[in-house]
Every structure is written in structure tokens, then in C-alpha cells.
Design brief:
alpha/beta; 5-stranded parallel β-sheet; Rossmann fold; 3 domains; receptor; single chain; 463 residues; Toll_tir_struct_dom_sf; TIR_dom; Toll/interleukin-1 receptor domain-containing protein
């Protein structure tokens, strides 16, 4: 199985933190990683050349930040310099790992996103250090999976294999950055169109908004000089290059006649296209009164009303959420390994031996196990679940209410192919008798049933 090369840059005075980190990045829990540091150079090896070779082959570079790291001449001159240059060329991802306290105010490269988040140094973690290292492990595993997934998509496109149709959709959804804004005949509608384009240009300039409105103001001036046939052909070409189309409605008959109808009908024709599965037509009603006057079929499209340009940007943002879900679902076919989400009560069951055995066995079978953390926010939890093929609720010392909430959440996640509940040994019969849906969940009853129950759960993960 392909792996992601990881290079760890560190000061030898911080060897204790390197050793702790490598335990969490071990191949048994991080099967997608090939981790290297200079401690692996054999005696008598040309250490300088060996380091440069591994550094240039790495796709992830971890910097163990401390005062010792900052004052090392070799790190600054060779490792850090090379890593930052490669990161700038998008050849690798450089991630600072905050180990011991030091002053980082004057280092421009500290704009890079580091771990633990919010620059919480491991030296301050105390008894919580294992939790912080497990979060680092999770983020690096996720990055490695993303890199390999994107590589698989690129390979599929290059080879034009049986997955390439799906890869092309992902590529199109990811790269399309244009929104078609209809070109109406009415002067008032034209004026509103121009005002929206000005607002969009400002949002691009100041907020890095990712979209371009087409046709632009100058393009419309050229379109107006064309014949009716040329005009239709030009607008059709622009529409085909857009991810979304927005149609301005100034009167109740706007989309029933003339150029407005032609543009709307062309947009409707794009909806069923497999290569544009999230294409949406948005209706912009210049007056809220029109809502009761236009056809119901038109009202089924996403719409906004009036002169509130913020509503336009909000509507596009909501469509982007659907787009990202579509991309995430399609990417599953290219994951380097299948993903399983594990729910467990962090405060009660983090050190539970059965939970650890369950996680380890899944990882040994090449499954990527994601899990909720004690401070996980609800939206991130949903996003992680949507990216998984199956999920397990581990029920150890947790309160029954906690268990019921998590069980209900998994029932709501329609994307999951397989669901399981793992019960630890104490009071197992009492827990087994709780409201567990036998049809929806595989039940793993303690250590004695671990292997058999896990195999059934994993079998259901298969398409």
C-alpha cells in the first residue's frame, strides 16, 4: 500500500518529545505513514546527504519547535530552509509541533498552522499529554489520507480507468469557480445586475471570495452587439462553464418569454448532467411581491428577494455546503483505506482495554479509525461521520443517556453502511437489554465476542 513519507526535524536536546511523538505515529496506528528522523541513519552513513534525501522525499515535514530547535544552525540552514521552500512550491506540508516554550514572535514561517492547536505547548500538557499527542496523530493521519486520496484521483484521471468518470466530476466540482448571472433586457434588472457584480468584485478583493461572475460588464457590452443567434450561443457557452446560474426576475412573465426564458431553459437543461451533479439554478426576485405571482415550478429553485446582496452571498454559501458534501461522498471511492468512526465517552472510557483492542484490531485490518474528542464541536463531528463508511458506539462506563444520544445520532446518518455497538464486560447483560436495534446495529458483546462481532461489522462495510 502506498505511504506518505514524513520527515521529523528536531533538536537532539528534545529527543524525549521525539520518542513520545513516534509512539503515536507508529505504523500499527498510522499505517499510511512512513516516518523518518536522523536517528535512523546507520553508523558510518553520509548523514548530511541522507538527511537531504529524506527531506526532499517527504510530503509531510514536522518541526518540533523549542528554543533548542530555533538556535540550531544546521536546522535553520538546511532542514528548515529546504522544508519551507518545498512548502511554498506545494511539494510538501510543513507542520510545526509545539514542544517547549519559546518566543516565536519574529518568525514569519509561524503563519503555518501548527499542532497542538492554539499553540498549546506539549510541555504544558502534564497528564494530558497523551490526549494532545492523540489529536496530533489524528490530524496527521487525516492529512496523509487526503494526500493519498488526491493522488488516487490524479492517477485515475491520468489512466482513464473505471473510476475516472467519478474523478472527473470531483475535478470539475473542485475547480469550477464561475457563477452565471443572467443578462436581462429590462433596464432596472440590468442596473441591479451591475450593482451585484460590483459587490462581488469587492468581495473577491477584500474577502477572497472564490467566484467570478460571468458574463462580466464588458462581456455584456459585446453580447449586446451580437445577433440573436450569436447571443444565444455565447450565453450557452458561458453557462456551461459555470457551477451555478442566477436568474434575475423583474416581472412575473420574465422567465416565460424572450432572452430571459432562453437562459432559464438552458440552465434547466444542465441539471441532469452527470458531470455537473450539483449545478443549481438560483432565482433572484427583485420584489418580494413576485413570490406569489410566479409559477410554482420556478419557486422550487433556491431563491432570494430584493436588494439584499448579502442574501445572494449567503445563498451561494449554502449551495457550497451541498457541493462539499458531494465532493466528500465521491472521494470515498479513492480513499486509501476505509474509515470507521468510533464514539466513546472520553472521560469514562479512554483507557478501557476493550476499546483500545477494538481500535487496534480495526487498524491492523487497514481501517482508518476516527474518533470523537472530549472537545469536539457538533458540526465537525457530523462532517467526520459523513466521511466514514461505518461507525461504532463503545459503551463502557458511560451514562445510559450518553449512549442513547450517540445511538440515535448514528441512526440518523444515512451514509453509513455499517453500525455497531461494542459493550464491555461489566453488567453486559443489563446493557445488552437496553434499546438497541438488532437490525441496524451489529452488537459486539465483550472480549469473547470481539473478533466475531468485528468481522460481521466489517463485512457490512463492503459495497
Amino acid at each position: 500500500m502506498p505511504k506518505v513519507n514524513v520527515f521529523i526535524s528536531y533538536s537532539h536536546q528534545d529527543r524525549d518529545y521525539l520518542d513520545k511523538l513516534k509512539i503515536f505515529l507508529h505504523e500499527k496506528t498510522c499505517p499510511l505513514l512512513n516516518v523518518w528522523d536522523d536517528g535512523e541513519i546507520p553508523l558510518g552513513g553520509e548523514w548530511n546527504e541522507v538527511i537531504k534525501t529524506h527531506l526532499n522525499e517527504a510530503r509531510i515535514v514536522l518541526l518540533l519547535i523549542s528554543q533548542n530547535f530555533l538556535i540550531s544552525d544546521y536546522i535553520e540552514r538546511v532542514e528548515l530552509k529546504t522544508a519551507l521552500e518545498r512548502d511554498k512550491r506545494k511539494e510538501c506540508s510543513v507542520i510545526p509541533i509545539f514542544t517547549r516554550h519559546c518566543n516565536l514572535d519574529n518568525y514569519a514561517w509561524m503563519q503555518l498552522q501548527g499542532l497542538p492547536k492554539e499553540m498549546r505547548f506539549l510541555s504544558d500538557a502534564g497528564a494530558d499529554i497523551d490526549n494532545q499527542l492523540s489529536l496530533i496523530q489524528k490530524d496527521i493521519n487525516d492529512l496523509a489520507a487526503l494526500l493519498l486520496t488526491n493522488e488516487n484521483i490524479s492517477t485515475s484521471l491520468a489512466n482513464n480507468d473505471e473510476k475516472s468518470a467519478n474523478a472527473k466530476v470531483i475535478q470539475e466540482l473542485t475547480s469550477k469557480r464561475k457563477i452565471f448571472l443572467s443578462v436581462p433586457d429590462e433596464p432596472e434588472a440590468r442596473k441591479k445586475r451591475q450593482e451585484l457584480i460590483i459587490q462581488a468584485d469587492a468581495k473577491v478583493k477584500y474577502d477572497d471570495w472564490p467566484y467570478e461572475i460571468i458574463p462580466g460588464i464588458k462581456d455584456v457590452q459585446e453580447i449586446d452587439k451580437m445577433s440573436a443567434e450569436e447571443r444565444t450561443e455565447k450565453l450557452a457557452l458561458q453557462l456551461s462553464d459555470a457551477l451555478y446560474s442566477v436568474h434575475i426576475v423583474a416581472s412575473e412573465n420574465d422567465l416565460k418569454e424572450g432572452i430571459n426564458k432562453i437562459q432559464y431553459d438552458m440552465a434547466k437543461g444542465l441539471h441532469p448532467a452527470a458531470t455537473n451533479s450539483v449545478f443549481r439554478t438560483v432565482i433572484w426576485l427583485l420584489s418580494a411581491d413576485l413570490l406569489s405571482k410566479i409559477d410554482k415550478e420556478i419557486c422550487q429553485n433556491p431563491l432570494f428577494t430584493g436588494n439584499d446582496y448579502g442574501a445572494f452571498f449567503d445563498k451561494i454559501a449554502s449551495l457550497d455546503v451541498d457541493k462539499e458534501k458531494e465532493i466528500a461522498e465521491r472521494k470515498k471511492e479513492f480513499f486509501p483505506n476505509k474509515r470507521v468512526y468510533m464514539y466513546y465517552d472520553f472521560t469514562a472510557d479512554h483507557d478501557n482495554e476493550l476499546r483500545i483492542d477494538l481500535k487496534t484490531k480495526m487498524e491492523e485490518k487497514n481501517y482508518c479509525v476516527r474518533w470523537n474528542t472530549f472537545d469536539e464541536d457538533g458540526q465537525k463531528e457530523i462532517e467526520d461521520l459523513e466521511a466514514c463508511d461505518g461507525a461504532v458506539v463503545f459503551y463502557g462506563a458511560a451514562q445510559p443517556k450518553w449512549f442513547m444520544v450517540k445511538q440515535a445520532k448514528l441512526l440518523d446518518m444515512k451514509n453509513l453502511r455499517s453500525r455497531a455497538i461494542c459493550l464491555d464486560e461489566p453488567e453486559i447483560q443489563k446493557k445488552f437489554n437496553r434499546d438497541v436495534s438488532k437490525n441496524e446495529f451489529v452488537t459486539i458483546q465483550g472480549k469473547a465476542n470481539l473478533d466475531a462481532g468485528l468481522n460481521t461489522f466489517l463485512e457490512r462495510l463492503q459495497p
